[in-house]
Amino acid sequence: MVDHKLFEPFDLGPIRLSNRFVMAPLTRSRATSEGDVGDLQVEYYRQRAGAGLIVSEATNITVEGRGYAFTPGIYTDEHVAGWKRVTDAVHAEGGKIFLQLWHVGRISHPDLQEGGQLPVAPSAVKPEGQAFTEDGFKPHVTPRALEASELPRLIADYVRATRNARAAGFDGVEVHSANGYLLDQFLRDGANKRDDEYGGSIENRMRFPLQVVDAVVDAWDAEHVGIRISPVTAANDLADTDPQPLFERYVEALSQRRLAYLHVIEGQTGGPRDNIAFDYDALRARFDGVYMGNNGYDADLAGERLEAGKLDLVCIGRPFIANPDLVTRLKVGAPLNEGDKDTFYAGGAEGYVDYPALTPEDLARYAEAA
Ligand code: 8OZ
After folding, report:
1. How far is the centre of ligand 1, averaged over its atoms, from the C-alpha of 369 (Å)?
2. Does residue 111 surpass a pLDDT of 60?
3. Is the pLDDT at 274 greater than 70, yes or no?
4. Which of 43, 71, 117, 296 is the most exposed place for a label (fewest CB within 10 A)?
5. Which helix (H) or strand (E) is 167 found in, with range?
């Protein structure tokens, strides 16, 4: 049975959500070459404002942090103006929206960098795989290892992006510390081979991500800052030799910061939940705050885990692509539209803003049957 508490309002600190369903950050690659958003994104996010909370698609905090063509930015005045139209549209529908702050680190390509420079990373370790450039997929390169003396510059980029997100009307920001991007590259030892105070021990590997979190909190406040982690996902060729103690320590440190929420991808991002053993309840126990569970959830699993005290918010990704009114559909038990994978990242309106919501007649029919 669906847990009805999922459909009731939830107070995320000072932010009242209309329900406990969160639309996951979903890269859709429809921004301009400059990272601007416009009419298409306004319509897309407006259609999905029935989620209790939307987390925006991952958004570049700077050119250096960009790893995929046609992803949006939050580092220019034009970016702020474009996003302001999106947040206004979501708010007009009674929704709430956080912006996800993104720096990809080594998951980039010189074609996406200013002056064709190398991508930056904690260490010069090349990931397997390919980058998505404006000319298609190109193999990743060996990144340039960041000097410790450069890190304040990156922190300043996070701070500027946070201020910009606030100016653009977002309800908060989510620090992207998952899926093999920059902060995750510092955390997990598959990409962090440093021998300074930013590498080696767990304490050292957490140092830069926590400095970023502290700076972002300083730039706004803890109630408006969430964070996303993915302890075992293999996305972007990243792994850690011993993730359980690493992420338990990280979550303890995050808990001390009193963040708005902890967003955890349980298992492989977009894949199986349980093919790698990991104790997520141990993370939940270490975080004194709102726990957002993600990956492969439907309303039944979310209801069960909410009932068992294992999550507060449930974050759903792909079903929101094809079902703008997903929460309504789950509530009335209506069938879900199937998403078309060919248009997930294809650009343009098709497969983006043309998935149908239920009509009032459909709704009446399902409500009657329920
Ligand atoms: C899919 C395609 C491109 C980027 C992530 C931001 O995994 C992403 C992403 C996902 O967090």
Report:
1. 38
2. yes
3. yes
4. 117
5. helix 151-167
Query: Is 181 labeled as catalytic in the residue annotation?
Result: yes
Question: Is it the case that residue 3 has pLDDT exceeding 70?
Answer: no
What's the domain range around 63? Answer: 5-369
Q: From CA 255, how far away is CA 98, in angstroms rounded?
A: 19
Q: Residue 179: CB within 6 Å of ligand 1?
A: yes
Nearest CA to ligand 1 atom 7: 179
Residue 168 has pLDDT above 70, yes or no: yes
Measured in whole angstroms, how far is the alpha carbon of residue 32 from the centre of its chain? 20
Q: Which whole number is the average pLDDT over 5-9? A: 97
What's the confidence (pLDDT) of residue 370?
Answer: 72
- CATH assignment at residue 225: 3.20.20.70
How far is it, in rounded angstroms, from Cα 292 to Cα 281?
A: 12
Characterize 14-53 residue by residue with b for buried, 16 or more Cβ atoms within 10 angstroms of its Cβ, and e for exposed.
ebebbbbbbbbbbbbbbbeeebbbeebbbbbbbbbbbbbb
Distance CA 49, CA 326 (A): 10
What does the DSSP 8-state code read for residue 93? T
Residue 305 has pLDDT above 80, yes or no: yes
Q: Which two tokens stand for residue 133?
A: 């450039």
Q: How many domains does the chain have?
A: 1
- Type of residue numbered 332: V
68, 158, 181, 280: which one is catalytic? Answer: 181
The reported pTM is 0.98
How many angstroms is it from 26 CA to the middle of ligand 1? 7
Tokens coding 268 = 């492989």
Q: How far is CA 87 from CA 52, 206, 218, 227, 317, in A?
A: 14, 32, 22, 20, 19
Tell how strand 10-12 and strand 15-17 pair up. antiparallel
- Choose one of 23, 27, 133, 176 to mutate for the ligand 1 pocket test, by most ligand atoms within 8 angstroms of C-beta: 27
